[in-house]
Design a protein that fits this description.
The chain is of the alpha+beta class. 21% of the residues lie in helices and 42% in strands. The protein has a six-stranded antiparallel beta barrel with strand order 2-24-28-26-25-29. A six-stranded antiparallel beta barrel has the order 10-13-12-11-14-15. Helix 4 packs antiparallel against helix 7. It is elongated and about 130 Å long.
């Protein structure tokens, strides 16, 4: 629709330009009619033929040559738009939790516009914080145990350190025992280590020394479903060895052939085979009961001295899960490699924290909400436009000008503007710049001319249609007569005076209605011209 309206405006501009040129191309015809008008004028004043003569002759007009202002303009049309309408995007994958503003609301820079949520991001940050803690311990572990303890007990000058609370010396407080702590709150679902194990060897074999469930849920993935009429949110029955519970269908993909069932509660043994039925008792499929949001507990060296938890226990973040004894030799000899791992963990955590901060969407500027592109509860990905704001920075205008007129347009020229929706609005502007490439539509080529507005009207809104007359030439105190009074002579233009005399004239600026006379006439002289009768 917008393209059609733009094309219609362009064609209207072309018709107006062509109509103006038709007047000039028809000047010879007007000149002939003007001569006939003079003949009629003379016959009228010589008393010839009365009503019969009047029927044969065109009407005669007269005009005084007078001083005035003349402007030659070029037509253009376009839409007035906000000078700045920044869009606000999501930097992360998330879900829209809350939206505080609606279309047309006023906002200030820094106002909170939306809140996004990403539960997995919080779990990821907890894991990264734990990984960074372990990486820090690895850096420390590149020293021998004696070096580590010494640095805890003595400062850089060799003086003993004291407990800041009791004032007692720290001597004897440290041993070669360290702990494995919970990276997040949750339920212990699996323990792979036991006393005497090399914790690093177990970690390399299993990918974890323990596994936690962090959200209190479990799930079953089903595949190969056929013929069932399923919908998201359906309640199903989950049965297995020690398992008899309800579940909810939370995912349905591939035309209903794959589904995920979520179970509220994580008290069941992980990796238990289960069968899933509809509420009506119809068989749906079989799968393995898994942890919905598992978190691996890591360890990078030492001999397991003891374990402080059992499968099924609920733990809080940083709770001690196991105790490990260090050997006296360095656990890590390649300090540079360990430092690289530490820096990598630190950067990953910083990026995740930045993503969490990006869940709060704030206004980048003062202005009005121009569009709200997402709804509460909708999922968005990084790069999704959330909304846009019309900044308090005025309006801008681009006019489309026909290719046959564009060569007369230059930066700095004044523009008179009219708004279709506001007939009484009087706007002015100045040509700012001209596009170097044209736009071709249905064989009509136009060029974009960028206008800087020099006046305002608070009633104007973005998207309103505007017509503009660009002043490409003008003169003040110019001697003017109607353009219709010009006749084409042998060497240029001429006019007919009231006494019948035909006089050559030199013309200047010419428009559809008036023409500037540079020589050949003086102010106050009367020219006679005719307009054919209808």
């Amino acid at each position: 629709m917008e393209e059609k309206q733009t094309a219609d405006k362009t064609r209207l501009a072309l018709r107006r330009r062509q109509a103006g040129r038709w007047v000039l191309r028809a000047a010879g015809t007007v000149a002939v009619l003007s001569v006939l008008g003079i003949a009629g004028y003379r016959m009228f004043f010589s008393g010839a033929s009365g009503e019969q003569a009047q029927e044969r002759q065109p009407a005669a007009n007269t005009a005084l040559a007078a001083y005035g202002t003349i402007e030659k303009t070029v037509f253009g049309s376009g839409e007035i738009m906000p000078a700045s309408q920044p869009a606000v995007y999501s930097d992360v994958d998330a879900r829209v939790a809350e939206s505080y503003y609606e279309l047309g609301d006023t906002v200030k820079a820094g106002d909170i516009l939306m809140l996004l949520e990403n539960e997995e991001l919080e779990t990821q940050i907890e894991q990264l914080e734990y990984d960074l803690q372990l990486a820090q311990e690895e850096v420390t572990a590149t020293q021998t145990h004696e070096q580590y303890v010494y640095r805890q007990l003595y400062d850089d000058e060799g003086d003993p350190r004291f407990d800041v609370n009791t004032g007692e010396p720290l001597m004897g407080k440290y041993s070669n025992e360290i702990t494995i702590r919970a990276p997040a709150s949750g339920r212990v679902m699996a323990i792979y280590i036991e006393a005497g194990d090399d914790s690093l060897a177990v970690y390399r074999d299993k990918g974890a020394v323990m596994v936690l469930s962090t959200d209190g849920r479990m799930k079953v993935n089903l595949s190969g479903l056929e013929g069932q009429s399923l919908e998201l949110g359906d309640t199903v029955r989950v049965l297995g060895d020690g398992v008899d519970t309800e579940g909810t269908l939370i995912s349905l993909t591939r035309r209903g052939t794959e589904a995920t069932v979520q179970v509220i509660g994580d008290e069941y043994e992980m990796d238990t085979p289960v069968t899933v039925y509809t509420e009506a008792g119809d068989f749906l499929g079989e799968g393995i009961l898994e942890i919905n949001k598992p978190m691996a507990v890591s360890s990078y060296g030492g001999t397991v001295k003891g374990i402080t938890v059992e499968v099924g226990d609920q733990v809080s973040r940083y709770d001690v899960l196991a105790r490990i004894v260090w050997d006296e030799i360095p656990l890590y000899l390649d300090n540079a490699s360990v430092l690289n791992e530490y820096n990598k963990a630190r950067v990953e955590l910083e990026n995740a924290v930045a993503d969490r901060a990006a869940l709060t969407i704030v206004a980048p500027c003062d202005g009005l909400i121009a569009s709200v592109d997402v709804e509460e509860g909708s999922d968005v990905t990084a790069g999704t436009q959330l909304l846009s704001i019309v900044e308090d920075a005025g309006m801008t205008l681009t006019l489309s000008v026909d290719e046959l007129d564009i060569l007369s347009v230059e930066p700095g020229q004044e523009v008179h503007l009219s708004v279709d929706a506001l007939p009484d609005a009087q706007l002015t502007g100045v040509v700012q710049k001209i596009a170097p490439l044209g736009n071709t539509d249905t064989s009509v080529t136009t060029y974009d001319v960028y206008i800087e507005l020099t006046s305002e009207d608070e009633r104007i809104k973005g998207g309103m249609n505007v017509s503009g007359e660009i002043v490409v030439d003008s003169a003040q105190d110019a001697l003017l007569i109607p353009t219709d009074a010009l006749q084409k002579g042998e060497e240029g233009y001429c006019v007919t005076l009231a006494d019948g005399q035909i006089r050559d004239v030199e013309t200047g600026i010419m428009t559809d209605g008036q023409v500037q006379i540079l020589s050949g006439l003086t102010a106050g002289e009367t020219v006679v011209y005719s307009i054919p009768m209808a």
